[in-house]
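Field reference: sequence -> structure
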Amino acid sequence: MDKVYSPGLDGIIAAETKISLLDTVDCQIVIRGYDLIELSQNNSYLDLVHLLYHNELPTAQQKTTMENAFKQYYEVPNEIFEIFKLLPKTTHPMDGLRTGISSLAGYDENIENRSPEENLARAYRLLGNMPNIVANSYRVINGQEIVEPDTSLSYSANFYYMITGKKPTKLEEQIFDESLVMYIEHEMPNSTFAARVIASTQADLYGALTGAVASLKGSLHGGANEAVMYMLLEAKTVEGFKVLLQEKLANKEKIMGFGHRVYMKKMDPRALIMKQALRKLCDEKGDDLLYRMCEAGEIIMEQEKGLYPNLDYYAAPVYYMLGLPIELYTPIFFSSRTAGLCAHVIEQHENNRLFRPRVNYTGERYKS
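Structure field:
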């Protein structure tokens, strides 16, 4: 049979999964059979975490039980903070996050156990640990005081508090949680594929997630939300943003926040949710500049390139309005996606086949 070569594995089916699907016909993100956008209207991040791991939306009691389980793991070993202190001040927050996740493996006494039950317990521990790792790796590396977790707050409110040092308003908590919902799972992007490839060797969950962090740090995968925010800050005004985009288009520069390998002819449905969230934040704070800038950019890119916003385009100004450090936008993305990544690793370990693709050799062959 002839080999089929598809650069970047574009269009190649690499795995079977019951976790999620990007339905490009109806432009839906399907999570365990449910439409993500519909779920987001009445469900929180923890509702979707429960759906990912238990294949059903939780009752109020189940949700409380799960959140209490996460709270048991809000604290991380003090030695992790000592490791952060040894890192150079120039360490990228994603590298701090990667180091923290990798270090956690040494504290797992059952690290060689790959059973679904043990992997699920690991997923719970990691989701409990993640806000602390994200917030305090950044704080320690930047010489700031560590913020202790507050178990009286909801999962998302505590995450926000640990990053900013202040408790969120009701709207801030709601929108931050909504952003976590938008980032939670997205079928088979590069970082998820990387995690499954690593897991297919029977590597542990920490190793798979460490590789996923490295993948997400790449500028063609994660980091777009940060790049969008720096563009907006550089432009300063609506007119300035229009000029900046036109200059980048004239120079044939890649403009972050637009286009998607899957959503090519429509707006990423998650972006619309974040656009609505941005409108709410602007109304509450009495400043709609970022909203007007983003709308102007959206119109230009559709007219000039036929490109539509992806999630990162509107998530960036939402995070800025929430007062979150720009350097933490991608680590927050990864923290949310940890739920989906763990689900994929669990599924990979349950029905494993080692990934071992072949190549089309284009080099020379010599006779000795």
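Note: The chain has a mean pLDDT of 95.
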